[in-house]
Amino acid sequence: RKEVEQDPGPFNVPEGATVAFNCTYSNSASQSFFWYRQDCRKEPKLLMSVYSSGNEDGRFTAQLNRASQYISLLIRDSKLSDSATYLCVVGSNTGGFKTIFGAGTRLFVKA
Amino acid sequence: SAVISQKPSRDICQRGTSLTIQCQVDSQVTMMFWYRQQPGQSLTLIATANQGSEATYESGFVIDKFPISRPNLTFSTLTVSNMSPEDSSIYLCSVQRGPNTEAFFGQGTRLTVV
After folding, report:
1. What is the per-residue pLDDT across A53-64, written as a single tens digit (0 to 9) for each?
2. Which residues in chain A touch residue B102, judged by CB atoms under 8 angstroms apart?
3. What is the helix, strand, coil percentage profile of chain B, to 5?
């Protein structure tokens, strides 16, 4: 079982749609949770951190369910510029600190 | 934040040769990592580059194949040795200012081995 699992997609949505991505992680001792965005042929960049209380940044909402070891990202009112790969990322300190990246979910937003 | 300069951005190399990738950070950072990303795949951690000591390698990666240097807190190199076509990938350096903090990445090195 992979440490961080995501639906690879692709998700093809029209502009203005709402889209949700899910992610599960295997290490119950994981300490930090993030969503990163990676554009084609570019390096990953932080989109937002994910807190137990959930957090929102404009059109983006992230939620964490520690009991189910589940992370989600909701994008409202999708824009063409949201087209990218979204990486679920988990930080764990088991046997030394590591940042584990999911394989990513591809999103295509169409006009 | 951290600004990372990674060189080269791409290279095409003959099998059996070696390539050294450099990563320069604009400020001192404790945690520096090297990743590999195959097309359409997730980032796989190769090793943690430790300043002043030997790197810590992940399962499946060995020092003889991927020697790493970390002479100070702003610079590291990764060498891909005795390359084969299977080493064709994107290699990324990353830094974090502490555990559970944001990871910053270099622009990546796109390596093709022919």
Report:
1. 889 999 999 999
2. 34, 46, 49
3. 5, 50, 45
